[in-house]
């Protein structure tokens, strides 16, 4: 049987052995654990007796896990709204339908289920897999920093992830290090966690094809001058306050014309468009935190400087793929 070529330190079958959170032969209990870790889901056994032998090993720190269902099952997750999910079988195989594409996932090929993608997973008997949950906000933040500009649309990765290529080997070496650390160390410092997140996201963005992959891997324009970066920091820190282009220019110590020119050349946007993007993201984050009925979309929008609700709703839907009221309702 093929095995995932993983790590010289921790064998795949021993990954996170000390962090078992679920062992059950009850299909509904297995489904509930999947819901706690990922999202709402439907789980069906293809065995006539509905037999499963589910085992889940997971650490919220790092968002990594190892799991098996011990039978032939169908998993129909809801939409992964806030994260992408990477799956790499140690043994066996899964057939995963992601959007309009089907990926045969085995020890030679993993899969990436993107945020907002619909998927159906056919998990065969004697299959066990490693999983990594990567937060969408983290991916977007790193991608924006690496590109030096805001993103025009969400990041969407290629669904299939070959693991028997040069790029696949680089990925497995990095993932192996991460799994080694999280399998044996109970207390990991925040600094180490930050380093792991940075390494994982950077490797994923520069090693696996996605919406901005070609742009990230090209030589691209020269680095932005310091005054552009100063204004970006100023906007991030003061987005909740009234800010004008004059305020930005004065803070940077340059003329408004130089500021416009710098943002257009190095960020492919304008300072005020950058401010609007930051405010839209802050509204999105606040709406996700609110309990329906505790506040209104209008109140949140006004707090972040959006006085024309119609224009705001249009911009928000274009940016996040749903209306602000839909975000609040979830």
For the largest beta sheet, what order do the strands appear in spatially? 1-3-4-11-6-9-12
Number of helices: 12
CATH superfamily of the largest domain: Jelly Rolls
Going by CATH, the architecture of the largest domain would be Sandwich
CATH topology of the largest domain: Jelly Rolls
Spatial shape: globular
Radius of gyration: 22 Å
Helix-strand makeup class: alpha+beta
CATH class of the largest domain: Mainly Beta
Give the N-to-C terminal Cα separation.
43 Å
Tell me the major beta sheet.
Answer: 7 strands, antiparallel
- Poorly predicted residue ranges: none
The H-and-E topology, N to C, reads as EHEEEEEEEEEEHEHHHHHHHHHH
Number of E-type strands? 12
Average predicted confidence as pLDDT: 87
Helix content: 40-55%
Q: What's the structural domain tally? A: 2
Strand residue percentage: 15-25%
Describe the structure.
α3 runs antiparallel to α4 and α6 packs across α7. The strands form 2 sheets. This protein has a 7-stranded antiparallel sheet, with helices on both faces. A 5-stranded antiparallel sheet has the order 2-5-10-7-8, with helices on one face. The chain has 330 residues and is of the alpha+beta class. 43% of the residues lie in helices and 20% in strands. A hairpin with a 2-residue loop joins β7 and β8.
Keywords:
330 residues, 2 domains, seven-stranded antiparallel sheet, Arc Repressor Mutant, subunit A, alpha+beta, five-stranded antiparallel sheet
